[in-house]
Amino acid sequence: MNQCEDIIVKCPNPEHTKNVKQVCFDESCKEQRLYCHECIKIGMHVTHHQHQEELPFLFEHISRIEKESDDLINRINKQMDLIYNDFFLLIGGIRSKYQISKQQLLNLNFQQINSFLSQSIHFKQFELTIEKLLQELIKEFQDQIKKLQKDLNLFALDYDQISKSNIEKSEELYEIGYKLYWNDDKYEEAIQIFDQALDFNSKHQLSLWCKAESLKMLGQYHDAIVWADKALQVDLKHCSSLRTKADSLRGLNQYNESIVWADKALQVDPKNCSSLSTKAESLRMLGQYNEAIIWADKALQVDPKHCNSLFTKAASLRMLDKYNEAIIWADKALQVDPKHCNSLFTKGDSLRYLKKFKEAMEVIEQSLKINPNHFDSLRIKGECLHDQKQYQQALIFYDKALEINSNHQCTQNKKNECLKAIQNK
Ligand SMILES: [Zn+2]
Ligand SMILES: [Zn+2]
Asked: Which ligand is nearest to the CA of 35?
């Protein structure tokens, strides 16, 4: 704030020689809001002297408004997220009610088949109702949003005009920040530089995007989304920002939303490898393993050495009980990055399913050497020991895994099984 007190602004009245001393905060005032002592002498703002403040107060005011508007944006974003969540629950409900495989049908008893049939015969009616209702609600919602946009009256403002030299300064700073981000993995330092670039040009899209991307790399996914959204306000079709948003949503375990944004990136650039991979991985996390493999393959067509896609394919094959194939694809990922713990875990777990315990243990050890706190490797080491009836040892690793993620039900169950086995010995 001290810096602000030194700031000197000339009075906007061209006939005055003095600097601005005060600011008028009266709601209905129509005069120049910044004014000097000479202005006071000619009677400006005298009718509402209770709303006059010294110049430094202006800077407190703008930072307060910035914070309040950020808070508002966060709150309304959360409201939209709630709508999105409900919407995805609805979609999930439609899927589980009306979509059934031949095999699932054959597994039902006659009463269940009857009930499924009578529900599905009424599908058309349900379809009409839901479509009409949603169309009406969305139209009303859009109309209201458009009205609010109009009230913002953005076209009347010209404070967005940025001087050429400020644009150049922001470009230079961005280049410095990008090197820190890309070459040196120094994300915090990079963010500081991007902030400086944005002080010169608050709409510098690449700085907005790369700040989001750096936040994502730091695991600050919520903030990353806020900044990716700011970049998207400059250009709705900025592929990298769409991808950063998709990736961050995946980091927050919001897989359905992640796919929506990956699809938007793919509409702009259908061969964007990262977006293809993000979509594949989100599908895998939703348990749609066959679909996940289809999208991982698309990513691998663009870049056959894309490590995350190789891993997604391997892990999906493992979940489909295709252990030998899973090992082949995990090995391909490990050729690209020998320290990829998730791939080591996938390979180790597949070997375990194939009862090749010695090899499995070796691979898992490798993973734990790289990252002693790798959750999946810890729990699978437990299972591997458990399979070999080394119950006490297994217990140690179940506990280590549960220390990292105490809510993992499957590992909790395994631990209980293990305790029972020890009691019955
Ligand atoms: Zn004046
Ligand atoms: Zn006034």
From this structure: 1
